[in-house]
Design brief:
There is one protein chain. The chain has helices at residues 2-13, 23-28, 46-52, 65-74, 111-121, 139-165, 186-196, and strands at 34-40, 55-62, 81-85, 97-103, 122-132, 201-205, 209-215. By secondary structure, it is of the alpha/beta class. It has one domain (14-135, 179-216): Vaccinia Virus protein VP39 (Rossmann fold, 3-Layer(aba) Sandwich), CATH 3.40.50.150. Strands 3-2-1-4-5-7-6 form a 7-stranded mixed sheet, with helices on both faces. Strand 6 and strand 7 form a beta hairpin. The longest helix is centred in the last third of the chain and has 27 residues, at 139-165.
Length: 221
């Protein structure tokens, strides 16, 4: 128990953004250029600003007004980003988005209903990328978690050192949003997602994350 307590204290002293770690991977799933993008649960807008380098327009939505104001200030140099404080379940979404991204947010929302909305909001040939969290259940889940733990310590130490050299202290701005634990297992997520999004590709990742990638048919059904 004392060892676990020491690990917890070390992690608390060396916070790093596990979601941002996968931004480069998310971008690799997307076209080099696209017209309209939607980033759901944008937080401080880090991913939205990366999308804006490729998109004509980016709509970034988050329910937290304070983090939205911060995202706006950080994104003010990007004239093609519109950051909105809103509940995504209440936002009208036209079906013309070439890209939709949703990072560490789907477990806060009605799972199946939200995926259906995303599907309707995609333009023909559009791409949806979800990075989410799941509840551990299987031996494979626990094995992957165990493998991630030592790597997490090393990456946290390296990233904290780099941030301190830049004069940054405390938790990264992208980690200030409220969180809640996942309620669905990866098996449940996979079954429900594929029922709504035929052909979706789901996989577990290191650092307690999963991804869902769905490409809409080129001709709308």
């Amino acid at each position: 128990m004392r060892l676990l307590e020491k690990v917890d204290r070390f992690n608390a002293a060396h916070p790093w953004d596990h979601n941002a770690h996968y931004h480069a991977w998310i971008l690799r799933q997307l076209p080099a250029r696209f017209s309209r993008a939607l980033d759901v649960g944008c937080g401080s807008g880090d991913l939205a600003r990366l999308l804006a380098r490729r998109a004509d327009e980016v709509l970034a939505v988050d329910q937290d007004p304070s983090i939205v104001e911060h995202a706006r200030s950080l994104s003010s140099h990007r004239t093609n980003i519109d950051v909105v404080a809103a509940d995504i379940t209440e936002v009208e979404l036209p079906g013309d988005h070439d890209v939709i991204t949703c990072v560490a947010t789907l477990h806060h929302l009605p799972f199946t209903a939200t995926l259906r909305r995303f599907r309707r909001a995609l333009a023909p040939g559009g791409t949806l990328v979800v990075l989410g969290v799941y509840r551990e259940q299987t031996a494979g889940d626990r094995l992957l978690s165990a493998a991630a733990a030592p790597t997490n310590l090393v990456v946290g130490w390296l990233k904290t050192r780099a941030r301190r050299r830049r004069g940054e202290t405390g938790r990264p701005a992208s980690m200030t949003a409220s969180t809640k634990p996942a309620s669905m297992t990866f098996t449940e997520i996979t079954a429900q997602a594929r029922a709504v999004l035929p052909g979706a590709v789901l996989r577990r990742h290191l650092f307690w994350r999963y991804s869902l990638v769905y490409r809409a048919p080129s001709v709308a059904r």
